[in-house]
Every structure is written in structure tokens, then in C-alpha cells.
Amino acid sequence: MATRKITITVPEELVESIKQRVDARGVSGYIAAAAAHQDAMDRLRELADRLEEEHGSLTDEEQQAALERIAAVDSWHDEQRSGSDEAA
Fold first, then answer.
1. I want to staple 62 with a disulfide (CB 3.0 to 4.6 A). Which of 53, 58, 86, 87 is the partner?
2. How far apart are CA 66 and CA 55, in angstroms?
3. Is the dihedral of CA 21, 27, 29, 31 positive or negative?
């Protein structure tokens, strides 16, 4: 992916906090990853808004079912990870 140098203004305390955490990626990589994450979240929100506009809001039951499914997937993932950790 092509990159472009830009200038941004960030609170000094935030820069210092980031500098304490970064590895080889450096501050630029850290901020680029944060911006990419925010961009993905914004796009996801836009998609959710379009879907809600097209299909209507989820019911409480649909929301609960989705949360239960997410919890089941998280649980399965944790079990898989625990199993691979024990095998190592």
C-alpha cells in the first residue's frame, strides 16, 4: 500500500503514552493502525445504518440471539485456543 506523509496535531500526553508502547512499528505505524481501525468502524456503522434503513431495526429478540451467538463463537474460540496451548 502506498503511503503519504501528512502532518497531524496530537495532544502531547497522547504522543508520550504511545511512545511508551510502540515497538518496531513506531509512532507512525501505531497511529496509522488506529486510523485504519477507526475507518473500519465508521464503514461498519455506515453499513449498519444502510441495512437498518433498508430492512428496519432489529427486534430485542434478534439482538439477544445475535449476542448469544457471538458469546458461543467466543467460547468456542477460547476452547480452541486453550486446546492448542495445552498441546504446545
1. 58
2. 16
3. positive
